[in-house]
Amino acid sequence: MPARNVIKPYVENGAYHLYNRGVEKRLLFLDGMDYGVLLRYLKEYLLTKDTDNLSKRLSDPNTSYKEKDTILKLIRLNNFSESLNLLAYCLMPNHFHFLVRQTGANTIDQFMQSLCTRYTMYFNRKYKRVGTLFQSVYKAVLVDNDEQFLHLTRYIHRQALASQGETLQDQPSSNPEYLSDRKSPWVHPEEILAFFSKTLPHLSYMSFVKEKEDSEIIKKLTLED
Question: What's this model's pTM, rounded to 2 decimal places?
Fold first, then answer.
């Protein structure tokens, strides 16, 4: 029997919880650079590609050969800005969580294959290893109601909370976008934040995140043992 959430019923305009961890539960991120590389990949895939500006820089005689090589790679790189929105994310040492909404029926599979393959190549090259980095195929769960939708974002962002108290760790997540502490055009918190108040603290998104999780609602959306 295949592992839970490996077989994925994809639908147009569907919201999905995507997650995976390192093979044999190994670490996926060994230092700050590793986190930064995956975040840069997300930005390159999800930010609208300025092809005109890239082409101008490529034709500029003052652009170095090294810069031109980088520009050519960016021009050829897959881009999902028109077909996939990243609503929330958290990167943990040995796993990751994404909440995304796709417009087409096949975007997620193309996006995840490209992202995971590219990061594996980077990781293996840096740490002089070979073979699979991620545990099997990534998992995906269709989020089919508002209650599940909201509780899932809380689950994802609570991954970035310290085990003691409610102090944010340095684990990379979209929590700063939700608190208006940072604005990243490739992260889209507005769909979730529309459910919360911007002026009443007890009805704010942060107040919601600090509440106790409902384990029954998110039970099927979490990693297997």
Answer: 0.86
